[in-house]
Amino acid sequence: MPTKDLAWTATSALTMVAAGFVANKIVSTGWRAVTGRAAPKDQDELLTAGLAEVVVFAVVSGALVSLTRELALRQAAVWYDRSAVSARFGPRTTIEA
Fold this sequence. Notes:
Layout: H1 3-35, H2 43-48, H3 51-89
Protein name: DUF4235 domain-containing protein
Keywords: Membrane, Transmembrane, Transmembrane helix
């Protein structure tokens, strides 16, 4: 595996972990703000919660985690491409007219 692929693999893995952590915090905070209770995490909490609440929580948290990870990965790709170009060719310069 070339060094570039290894560097991108590490960058994307760290990005995904960080995005998942951030999304989890956002979901937990948002759920507490809307419902007044902590987000269901344990098996016992899921069993005592209503079906509609569990389904809404699953849909909202799944969508937010997916969106956060996708956006973070896209930003990491943009950053990684810029840093790779700068490392090879030096910083970009603009020509003023």
